[in-house]
Design brief:
Elements: E1 6-9, H1 11-20, H2 22-34, E2 38-41, H3 43-56, H4 61-70, E3 76-77, H5 93-101, E4 106-108, H6 112-115, E5 119-120, E6 123-126, H7 128-139
Helix pairs in contact: 1-2, 1-3, 2-7, 3-4
C-alpha cells in the first residue's frame, strides 16, 4: 500500500465499526494495527461521533472515552473552513470539507447522498467494502 494514502470515514462508518463490527471495524483495525492508510478527522466529526455514542446509543462514558482517545491518536487532525455547499443533506458537507482540508484520497461512506457524488475535486467517495477490496488488491 502506498504510504500517505489519506482517508476520511464519515460518522456512520465509525459508528458501524464501534457498534456492529464488520468491514468498518476491519478497516479501523487495518488503520490502527498496520497503518495501511492515514485517517483524517475533524473536531466536528469526532464530536458528532461522541454525541451519538452517548445519547443515541447510550454507551458508557468510559467506553466512549476509549474510542475518543483511540481516534485522537495517530490521525491527521484538520480544521476545515466549512465552505462547501454541494451535498443535498447539509450535514454531509462537513465530510467533504474535512476531505478537502486533509487532501484526502478517499471518503468512506454508506451515505447515498455522498456516494452519488462519486468524487469531489480529487477525492473519491466509495463504500467500505470497495475500500477494503482496494487495500487487499494493493497488497498483492
Amino acid at each position: 500500500m502506498p504510504k500517505g494514502l489519506r482517508v476520511v470515514f464519515d460518522t456512520n462508518i465509525l459508528l458501524s465499526a464501534i457498534l456492529y463490527g464488520g468491514i468498518p471495524l476491519e478497516l479501523l483495525n487495518l488503520w490502527q494495527k498496520e497503518r495501511a492508510f492515514e485517517l483524517i478527522i475533524s473536531p466536528e466529526i469526532l464530536a458528532e461521533l461522541v454525541a451519538k455514542l452517548r445519547t443515541k446509543f447510550g454507551l458508557p462514558t468510559n467506553l466512549v472515552q476509549e474510542w475518543r482517545e483511540l481516534l485522537s491518536r495517530n490521525i491527521i487532525r484538520v480544521l476545515p473552513e466549512y465552505l462547501t455547499q454541494i451535498c443535498r443533506d447539509d450535514k454531509d458537507n462537513k465530510i467533504i470539507d474535512t476531505a478537502i482540508s486533509g487532501n484526502a484520497h478517499y471518503i468512506i461512506t454508506g451515505d447515498e447522498d455522498l456516494l452519488t457524488l462519486k468524487s469531489y475535486q480529487r477525492t473519491k467517495i466509495i463504500k467500505a467494502r470497495n475500500f477494503l477490496d482496494l487495500l487487499k488488491e494493493k497488497r498483492k
